[in-house]
Amino acid sequence: MRRSLLHDESGTVESALVLLPLLILLLSVLQIAVGVFNREIAASNTQSVVTRSGLYSPDGSTPFQRMASEGITSAAGLSLSGGGTLFVGERQVHLPGITPILPQGESFSSTGVSIGENP
Q1: What is the signed CA dihedral for 48, 54, 60, 61, rounded to 10 degrees?
Q2: 24, 66, 93, 115: most buried, per Cβ within 10 A?
Q3: How many CB atoms lie within 10 A of CB 91?
């Protein structure tokens, strides 16, 4: 009796039918969570690059050169009437896919805005 219970494989097919969709569901939830987290990190990183570029110039380069050197793909500046410049930078981000739901991954853009004072 005891030996037959140890070698009984009557539940293996049902286990596989349950575990595969459960694994896909788990990876999908993980991909959504990682995507949300990475969007926040990318937004914070883009904002810090635009702010740093608009305010700080140790080497004498322009803010647009500094933004381009740190991965900002699109940058614009608008002169303000009271003095200073409004800087807007945008970065394209691509995240790899980890589930069959989004096999190509996820692409999005993050934007940062800063005001730089003219010396």
Answers
A1: 80
A2: 66
A3: 22
The answer, yes or no, to whether residue 119 has pLDDT greater than 60, is no
pLDDT in tens, 56-106: 777 778 888 888 888 888 999 999 888 888 999 999 988 877 776 677 878
Burial 21-47 (b: 16+ CB within 10 A, else e): eeeeeeeeeebeeebeeeeeebbebbb
Instruction: Return the percent helix, strand and coil in the chain, to nearest 5.
Output: 45, 25, 30
Residue listed under structure tokens 């739901």: 101
Residue 70 burial by Cβ neighbours in a 10 Å radius (0-12, 13-18, 19+): middle
